Every structure is written in structure tokens, then in C-alpha cells.
Amino acid sequence: MTALQKLVYTGYARRLRKRLDGANLPRHLAMVMDGNRRWARQMGFEDARVGHRYGAEHLDEVLGWCVEMGIRHVTVFVASVDNVRKRDAGEVGNLMRMIEEVVAERLSRPSSVWRLHLAGRLEVLPDSTRDALKLAADSTRDAPGVLAESTGDGGFHLNIAIGYDGREEIVTAIRSLLDEEASAGYSAADIAQRLTAERIAAHLYTGGQPDPDLVIRTSGERRTSGFLLWQAAYSELHFCDVYWPGFRKVDFLRALRSYAARNRRFGA
Question: Distance from CA of residue 27 to its chain's centroid?
């Protein structure tokens, strides 16, 4: 990018940001971070797996944009159960290392404002990845953004969906609710009468958090791939043609602008 292009880009980003002052912005933003390998090939890297490192490092920057815009709940789709089980072992191993070395390490820093929540079947992950993510989740319980909850502003919460399957999440939530009810001594008939959407939602990975208002998917794919099937029932969707490592701040701001201009009807 030339100096002139940088100047134009900076000015455009500033105007986009200004137009969002006072706009209706999502409380909860969900993102499918797609296109890491395709971006690496596009950039001329011989090993497309390099894209995973760039993608992992880019998450840190995008989370900074979310803080700037006051978006306090973010969920990112890192890898599905099928991604972990069916892709080439070398690629999966590289992705897991990136998660351990970049995502978990950076979120664990004292300067991080994010409280980390894990969403998915952690047992399908390598031991080292599972341990690194659990350690990061434990260490962020007292993050500055979490301590801010005592002032009533809610703090900042990041859900990492890894080893994730949307259908399985719903099954797991219902099973957890049924086990809880049975342990309390309720009969099958009583449990059926007490079953509600709200009570099931409380047992999802994101239980206690607002449903996502906006779901962004990069790379040009027009599908959600089972991401947050329950929670995203009434979410607004935004599909962006750029690959995840190339997802710029102007792309982010355009997605927010599109969301702010929509009249949400929640199925009405």
C-alpha cells in the first residue's frame, strides 16, 4: 500500500467510524474466521498452513476493534469437530500449535481485558491445546474487563468455539438439563412440563450471555456451518468476501454499518 493509499484508507476508516457514533451496535458479535489457507495461497506462501498463524494473530487485532466499539461479547468459530477429526494431521497439529502459542498465550497476558469461555468438545483436542486453553480461561477470570463487572458495565467476554458442533451443543444442553432435573427428584412427566426454551438456553456453552446480534463470516462462503444453531436463530448475518487474515478494519466497520441500518424483527 502506497503512502497515498494509506492516507485514503485512514480517512475512509475514520469517516466510517464517525458515522457509527450513537448507532445501534451489536452487544454480541459472532465471527466465523474462514479462509486462512486460501489467503496464504493468494499471498504466495508455499505452505498454506502459514495462514493459520496469520489468522490467529489477526484475532488479537480484531478483538481490539471490538473493545474500541464497546462490543462486550464476542464468539469466534475456530474449528469444528470435523475439522479436528477429518483434516490432515499435520494441518490440525499446526492449527493447534497456533492456538496454544498465539491465542491462549495472548489472552493470558495481564493486559488482556477479555474473560475467556470455552465452547466445544475439548476432549477431541490434543492434551497440550486443551490444557493451554483451560489455563487461559482460569487466568482470565480476574481480567480487568471482568473486574469491571462490579461497576455494572458487564466486562468483556470471549467465547472460543473449538471442537464445536452446533447440533451436539443442543443435545449436550438438553442432557445436562435433564440430569439436573432428575437429580432434583423430578419425574419424567414433571420434567416435560418444566421444559422451556429459556431453561435449555441456560445450559448452552454461552449460557448467561446474550444471543449474538450479528454473525460475520469471512471468505465469501454463504453458510453458517452449524455455528451457534440455537443462539443465532434471529441473528443478522453478514458475509464478507475477504479471507480472515485480510479482514480489514473498514470491512469490520462496514459490517457494523450494515447491522445498524437493519430493522430487526426477531421473526415477527
Answer: 13
